[in-house]
Amino acid sequence: MGNITIPKSLFILLVFIIQCCTKHAPMGTYPTNYFKKTVPRFKNNRPMIGVLTVGLDMQEQLINHVPDVKGKAYVGSSYIKFLESAGARAVPIIEDIDEKELAALLPKLSGVLLPGNDDDTGDGGYYKRVKQILQYSKMLKKKNQIKFPVLGICRGAQRMLVYMSGSDSQLAADAVNMSLPLKWHSSRHRSRLFGHAPSGLVEAIEKKPIAFFHSNFVIPTESFYNNTKLKRKVRVLSTNVDRNGTKFISSYEVRRYPWYGLQWQPEKAPFEFSTKLAVDHSPASIMMSQYIANFFVGQTKENPHHFASLQDEEKHNMNKDRTYYVGNVTDSEYDQIYLYPMKRVYGFTYQTSNYTAPNELHEGDLK
């Protein structure tokens, strides 16, 4: 058989096509090993994830513009949509829930999300719930080798580090309303959270201001590395610098337990559209949000916990609860929020009528 001669023009075209195909790193919203290694470990394709709410005490704009909110706990609906977009459902955990009630609820959940909020930095109700949730997750892993994943976002990530360090190393900072690239730590490559992230996403968030920060407090890298407990327990994945030049921890995971912390807020890119926020809505930013959601919900699907009955599940499912549109409230960082009375008794069915504007709250709602 004779040699095949390729015309020079065709050879040049083939080289050009190959260069174009390899120029851009691959993008995706799942870890590259997700279907090969993670999916086969799934034990539950109907995960219910707890979401910790917080009192409205420090949300002055909402208190002044939304009727009958005093004494209520809230959570931004973007956190719920974030979980639902990856195939999970959410259950509210009220900040002042009784310790025994929370102990009874946790075995029905597949994991917990700790949202950003404006709680005080002391040992208040939010932090007490964080401690109980983490202690439960730790016990479950040690005793039964069952994963109970916890994802802390913004203040949630800070409070997890405070719990693990044994001291409050939070520092006042100016990382409010800013989008930044992440500065990756070398440990990212061997991490569970980002070790198998598509290279295109990793590159995009490193080079472009995609990660949205909205924090008055941070955990400085100096405080972190001076704390022996944290260095031993936590793997730093990325750092950033605020407007004052303070370097802080922006992404981490815990070596021994399925706990993850993000000082930035991935849930905002697809779901929060206030023009007052410096949120990046580019495709790469939204894909990174979807990646985080898919990763975390995938972790919760390895947990076999479930409610004993469909009726019990429905009582706790946030799908039945009404949302409040607050996008027209000055300085609100949310388009929608959920509201719950404090000292809530689990199993109470809330009003579910549609809500269109802050001045249209009907008499008797949320009493």
From TrEMBL:
SUPFAM superfamilies linked to this entry: Class I glutamine amidotransferase-like
InterPro entries annotated for this entry? Class_I_gatase-like, Pept_C26_g-glut_hydrolase, Peptidase_C26
Q: Write out the catalytic residues in the record.
A: 154 (nucleophile)
The signal peptide annotation in the UniProt record is: 1-22
GO-annotated molecular function: gamma-glutamyl-peptidase activity
**Predominant place of localization:** secreted
Localization terms from the record: Secreted, Extracellular space
Which keywords does the record carry?
A: Hydrolase, Secreted, Signal
Q: What class of enzyme is it?
A: hydrolase
A Pfam family (short name) is Peptidase_C26
Q: Which domain of life is it from?
A: Eukaryota
PROSITE patterns according to UniProt: GATASE_TYPE_1, PEPTIDASE_C26_GGH
EC annotation? 3.4.19.9
Any single Gene Ontology cellular-component annotation: extracellular region
Which GO biological-process labels does this protein carry? tetrahydrofolylpolyglutamate metabolic process
**Stated family:** Belongs to the peptidase C26 family.
The name under which this protein is listed is folate gamma-glutamyl hydrolase
Biological source species: Clytia hemisphaerica
Species lineage: Eukaryota, Metazoa, Cnidaria, Hydrozoa, Hydroidolina
